[in-house]
Design goal:
Elements lengths: L2 H32 L1 H9 L46 E2 L2 E2 H4 E2 L2 H16 L3 E9 L26 H6 L37 H9 L1 E7 L8 H17 L3 E5 L11 H13 L3 E2 L7
Parallel strand pairs: 4-5, 5-6, 6-7
Antiparallel strand pairs: 1-2, 3-7
Helix pairs in contact: 1-4, 7-8
């Protein structure tokens, strides 16, 4: 592939990433429009767990363990350049889409560089991983788009993106679990023993199993009393992804358990800006 074709492919991948993040933004709207929230709850989680008071435990620093050596990966062949989806919606709930999806020119350029690095390492351009807590578990996060239980309506331009990531949307991630903290991503005690290697944390396990090009990261609901630890470990998660050629997309959380300060969401925004990576600012539109 010549340099112009490769650049066009990378540019198209950035457009697809933007559409994927736009898909994240409209998920609750599509759920409501299609009436699928109730259907999914009946199919996947028929009984809603009682809301209980979470017991807060002291934060732990990630345990220093030797990282398992990943199997040698064969670089993924670059698929034909798809036609980038064309957005037709500029405002959601009176909020401009560019505020909900922060992906400026400098960030786009950085994303292209990360993507190129990931392709050199054999990352799968058609796969993303979910890294999160209960807000990515219930209701089933993006599962609807792999089960065709939706009507896109005016968001029909997102269908090519749904097709591009078919199979990844409904996949269960080893890095998503109720009660998950940022520091738990590095703790083997939080890993699925039947899937993960000894001394392998959930994040490392998920990357080894799924080989993603993108990681959608939304954490913090369980870290509200430990903002310093949250910031330190969120940065560690971002660096872990970047070092492996994986594009981190940070999402703000839909609750404001800290009160009016909304401190953890401000930390998420700060972290995204510091690393020049995409921000999915769900806090602005969360129900």
């Amino acid at each position: 592939m010549n340099s112009n074709a490769r650049y066009n492919f990378f540019r198209t991948c950035v457009a697809i990433l933007a559409a994927l993040t736009a898909l994240l933004i409209v998920v609750p709207l599509v759920y409501d429009l299609a009436g699928v929230r109730t259907n999914l709850e009946e199919i996947i989680a028929p009984t809603r767990a009682a809301v209980t008071q979470r017991k807060t435990r002291a934060a732990r620093a990630p345990t220093a363990t030797a990282e398992p050596q990943p199997a040698t990966m064969t670089p993924t062949s670059i698929p034909p350049t798809p036609v980038p989806p064309q957005p037709t919606v500029a405002v959601l709930n009176n909020i401009p889409v560019e505020r909900l999806l922060v992906l400026n020119a400098a960030t786009r350029a950085h994303v292209r560089d990360i993507f190129a690095q990931g392709q050199a390492q054999g990352r799968n351009a058609r796969v993303f991983s979910k890294v999160g807590d209960s807000t990515m578990v219930y209701p089933p996060f993006m599962v609807v788009f792999d089960h065709k239980l939706y009507r896109l309506g005016k968001f029909a331009y997102l269908q090519p993106t749904i097709d591009h990531y078919a199979g990844a949307l409904g996949r269960t991630s080893a890095a998503v679990k109720k009660g998950m903290h940022t520091w738990s991503q590095f703790d083997p005690a939080w890993s699925a023993s039947e899937l993960c290697a000894p001394n392998e944390g959930p994040l490392a396990c998920e990357i080894r199993l799924n080989n993603p090009a993108i990681a959608i990261i939304r954490l913090g609901a369980n870290d509200t009393e430990f903002p310093r630890e949250f910031e330190r470990n969120l940065n560690a998660i971002v660096r872990y992804c970047l070092e492996r050629g994986i594009i981190p997309v940070l999402g703000t959380k839909p609750d404001r358990l800290e009160g009016e300060s909304n401190l953890l969401n401000h930390i998420v925004r700060k972290t995204a800006a510091a690393h020049n990576i995409p921000l999915w600012d769900y806090d602005l539109i969360a129900p």
